[in-house]
Amino acid sequence: LEEIPPRPVQDMGNILKQGYLEKRSREHSFFGSEWQKRWCVLNRRTFYYYASEKSKQPKGNFSIENYSARLAFHLRKDSRKKCCFELTCPGKRTYEFTAPSPAEAEDWVDQIQFLLKDLRSLTIPFDEEDEEELYNDVDSSDSVNTTSHNTTLNQDEPNVEMEEDDIYEVLPGKQPKPE
């Protein structure tokens, strides 16, 4: 088992979502409550749960890698059943939670699924280089006809050859400034 170093809530960086959830305890105690209120924190790879938001040591934590998250209305029979979700992973413990509202449960599931997709692809969701490539891909289909396009635009003037890197379009009646 990979050991994740415990960290106080205050020392956490990259917190994607945090808040109080009710977590179902693993041991169903005869005396204790089956659902315990926990301050839960999700960062880029790990789900931590604390006794409260002021706690220095987590009650527990686990790497969310290879887990899946989904709404789980079957976990409760009371009015809060639509607030439930679970994190499952084959061969590992299933974690069951109740959020304060159905919308909050959906948000936790969405955040975890987004993060899991990100972990599987091993890329940062918003990468400027990817965005540039996207634009280049869009432009590449148009750039095949650049020369003929410029010729039709500049019928009255001699055709001005544009450099590969030039991002400015030659408009009728205007000459590009020499560099």
Automatic annotation (TrEMBL):
Gene3D superfamilies: Pleckstrin-homology domain (PH domain)/Phosphotyrosine-binding domain (PTB) (2.30.29.30)
Location of this chain's protein in the cell: Cell membrane; Cytoplasm; Nucleus
Ranges of compositional bias, category Low complexity: 141-152
A GO cellular-component term linked to this record: cytoplasm
Signal sequence segment: none
A Pfam family assignment: PH
Region (Disordered): 131-179
Keyword tags: Cell membrane, Cytoplasm, Membrane, Nucleus, Phosphoprotein
Superkingdom of origin organism: Eukaryota
Name the record gives this protein: SKAP1 protein
